[in-house]
Specification:
Strand content: 5-15%
Number of strands: 5
Distance between the termini: 16 Å
Helix content: 40-55%
Largest sheet: 3 strands, antiparallel
Order of helices and strands: EEEEHHEHHHH
């Protein structure tokens, strides 16, 4: 659940996971987005779009008072973020795959895997390695949760 600063709550109906290295072996896809987007400074990825008032597939208003014209505004925000949302999807998958390889990533190979269309100067080796470590830590925290417990993150981090 995302609790926005305007008092609106948005629920993501996730359920998918990304395979990663480490003991946990997988991390919820929406958490992977948060970590990768934070590491690479993607302000208009999934979490930036939701925080700005946009809605994506599998996200719904869950509480709070909707701002006037919320659905139309949400569609416009999401439409403007289109390419950034697609870039975030590509990078989440690429970072998860890189984590499976272990060790420090080969940046030329990582760049080739991401492709020129989705590459950004913010994709630096330190950011990639931070994202890989943070994915494993988040997966371990997720796996350690007891039934009914919560795992909280802040956006932007």
């Amino acid at each position: 659940m995302l609790h926005r600063v305007d008092g609106v709550s948005v629920r993501l109906e996730g359920g998918s996971y990304n395979r990663i290295s480490g003991e946990a072996g997988r991390v919820p896809h929406d958490i992977a987005h948060l970590i990768v987007e934070a590491a690479f400074g993607l302000g208009s990825g999934l979490w930036g779009t939701l925080a700005a008032g946009g809605l994506v597939q599998n996200a719904v208003f869950a509480g709070g008072r909707k701002p006037p014209h919320a659905e139309r505004r949400a569609r416009a925000i999401t439409d403007r973020a289109g390419e950034s949302l697609r870039q975030a999807e590509i990078l989440v998958r690429a970072v998860a795959d890189a984590s499976l390889e272990g060790g420090r990533s080969d940046m030329p190979a990582f760049r080739a895997g991401v492709g020129a269309r989705w590459w950004s100067p913010s994709i630096m080796p330190d950011a990639l390695n931070r994202a890989r470590v943070d994915l494993c830590e988040a997966a371990n925290r997720w796996n350690a949760l007891e039934d009914g417990s919560e795992l909280r993150f802040t956006w932007p981090p």
